[in-house]
């Protein structure tokens, strides 16, 4: 009783097999269609290959299992099971890979003095309610007199991508514990996804995710500021491509297509022309839309600076196909949007193209004063990449710089690598696993400077002289005084005074102290080397939301 419509299942022998229309599907490369048709024939003849075909041998490890009565059915009629599984948990999904942190505003002074503002949870929290319980258990005697409901949380991963956690309007999704949706469900869903993604990387002894508690009003203010600045948001990048098709009519030469979601337009009869990066959604009002439309019958393309390309243009009725967005901070190759208006019997072949603009490649974006400065110029000389055909008669509508993600996490590594011969090599932005010594530091960039966590005394540089590498105070090693050898600046980094990690030192070695080595603080001075200065490395717990950018999960 009550189970008839729980799962819609066709009668035996009445199931359907549907071949998706190629034009309604994302661009794809096919395997052997002959093999697929052979399998379909076997199924029609009663083959039981469905029993053993597919991922039948794939195993999972169980992380959590919750049950409750199925919503909308009589009690006991059906059971809803919520499971969280991973292919192989290993040590990745351990609570020790998470850190709970109280910001200074919500941690009592005496607890700060005893370094009790950080803790390891007793279990991995997957819902906002579980997260609050963990904070209450870990910091019951350290929380400033504020209810947990008045706190917001920032999730900070190793890439310093930050995700806010707060009560949101209901999302329409079922509750993560199998219950109905409520005001916390959207936040719990975001927490669950962030935890799963962060803990999926191999365990290496460092925390994979920090959960930082701050006053709710401060969280809201920081979030509002970040959402107004594209530089403080992770780019919602998506690939796009342009393809060309050779037409039989020599007067038309060719037509183009544009696909969003693929970097390869080589499909069916189309030849791939160019790939470029765009945004799948606008970050702020400064990002503008570019739509792609298609004309039925000729299958030519329309490209315009609009949200929707449907409607009439150049005397042709267009069907909307895609929309993407570009911003003023694009740093990739310049793309040119241009059109040609045909006349007479060829009028229905009027069309648009997106082609690489070799003449403008590397120039600034044509966005000025919040609007688009169209570059209307003849493209008789413009030659397409990957083709010898010169296009005539096109008029340029506008150009844009393709989007490229240039984000670098504020927290990075300073490494020293020793070889069999020669002095040690010192570098920044390195792989700590392959280094003799690796210290987590901060990148000297706009975010670390704006956050105000680094004073001038915490700024250092890496330089190179004729005999090896050196580390000195200051942002530019080519300007340091007192060096016996000319220095070439390599990189700069910063270490805040409040850094709480292991203690390290820089030893000055060689007869004149012109070589530097990175050592643990206990082994800094020996024959031929003297301690120059020391610092603590930057831990994950030292990071704040001001040092990161909003993750895609934040939207």
What this model shows, in words?
With 555 residues, the protein is mainly beta. The chain is built from six helices and 29 strands. It has helices spanning 33-44, 109-113, 128-139, 185-198, 216-227, 446-450, and strands spanning 61-69, 79-86, 98-102, 118-119, 151-157, 161-165, 209-215, 237-246, 254-260, 271-279, 288-294, 301-304, 311-313, 316-326, 334-340, 351-356, 367-368, 371-372, 395-401, 411-417, 425-428, 437-443, 459-464, 469-473, 488-494, 503-509, 515-520, 529-536, 549-550. The strands form eight sheets. A six-stranded mixed beta sheet has the order 4-3-7-5-6-29, sandwiched between helices. A hairpin with a 2-residue loop joins strand 13 (311-313) and strand 14. The longest helix has 14 residues, at 185-198. The model is unreliable at 173-181 and 359-391 (pLDDT under 50).
How confident overall, as mean pLDDT? 84
Radius of gyration: 30 Å
Structural class of the helix and strand makeup? Answer: mainly beta
Share in β-strands: 25-35%
């Amino acid at each position: 009783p009550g189970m008839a419509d729980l799962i819609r299942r066709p009668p035996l022998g009445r199931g359907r097999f549907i071949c998706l229309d190629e034009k309604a599907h994302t661009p794809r490369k096919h395997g052997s269609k002959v093999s697929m048709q052979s399998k379909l024939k076997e199924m029609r003849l009663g083959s039981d290959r469905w029993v053993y075909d597919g991922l039948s041998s794939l195993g999972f490890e169980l992380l959590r299992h919750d049950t409750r009565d199925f919503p909308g059915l009589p009690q006991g009629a059906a059971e809803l099971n919520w499971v969280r599984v991973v292919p192989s948990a290993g040590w990745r999904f351990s609570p020790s890979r998470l850190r709970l942190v109280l910001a200074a505003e919500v941690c009592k002074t005496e607890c700060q003095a005893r370094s009790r503002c950080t803790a390891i949870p007793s279990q991995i929290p997957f819902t906002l309610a579980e997260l609050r319980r963990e904070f209450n258990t870990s910091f019951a005697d350290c929380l400033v007199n504020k209810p947990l409901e008045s706190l917001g949380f920032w999730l900070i991963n190793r890439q310093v991508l930050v995700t806010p956690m707060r009560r949101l309007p209901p999302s329409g999704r079922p509750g993560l514990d199998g219950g109905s949706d409520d005001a916390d469900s959207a936040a719990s869903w975001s927490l669950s996804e962030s935890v799963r993604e962060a803990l999926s990387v191999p365990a290496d002894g460092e925390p994979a995710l920090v959960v930082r508690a701050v006053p709710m009003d401060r969280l809201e203010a920081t979030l509002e500021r970040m959402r107004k600045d594209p530089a403080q948001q992770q780019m919602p990048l998506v690939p796009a491509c342009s393809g060309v098709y050779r037409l039989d009519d020599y007067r038309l030469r060719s037509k183009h297509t544009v696909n969003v979601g693929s970097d390869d337009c080589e499909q069916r009869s189309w030849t791939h022309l160019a790939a470029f990066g765009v945004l799948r959604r606008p970050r702020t009002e400064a990002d503008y839309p570019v739509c792609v439309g298609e004309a039925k019958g000729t299958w030519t393309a329309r490209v315009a600076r609009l949200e929707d390309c449907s409607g009439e243009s150049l005397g042709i009725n267009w069907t909307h196909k895609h929309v993407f967005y570009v911003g003023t901070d694009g740093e990739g190759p310049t793309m040119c949007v241009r059109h040609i208006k045909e006349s007479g019997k060829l009028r229905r072949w009027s069309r648009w193209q997106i082609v690489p603009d070799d003449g403008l490649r590397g120039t600034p974006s044509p966005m000025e004063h919040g609007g688009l400065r169209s570059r209307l110029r003849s493209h008789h000389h413009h030659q397409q990449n990957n083709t010898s055909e010169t296009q005539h008669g096109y008029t340029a509508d506008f150009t844009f710089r393709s989007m490229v993600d240039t984000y670098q996490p504020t927290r990075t590594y300073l490494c020293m690598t020793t070889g069999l011969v020669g002095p040690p090599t010192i570098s920044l932005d390195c792989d700590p696993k392959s280094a003799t010594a690796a210290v987590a530091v901060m990148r000297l960039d706009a975010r670390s400077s704006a956050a105000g966590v680094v004073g001038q005394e915490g700024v250092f540089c890496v330089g190179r002289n004729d005999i090896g590498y050196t580390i000195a105070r200051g942002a530019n090693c080519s300007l340091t005084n007192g060096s016996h050898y000319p220095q070439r600046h390599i990189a700069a980094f910063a270490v805040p005074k409040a850094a709480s990690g292991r203690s390290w030192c820089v030893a000055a070695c060689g007869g004149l102290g012109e070589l530097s080595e990175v050592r643990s603080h206990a082994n800094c001075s020996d024959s031929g080397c003297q301690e120059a200065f020391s610092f603590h490395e930057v831990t994950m717990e030292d990071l704040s939301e001001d040092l990161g950018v909003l993750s895609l999960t934040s939207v």
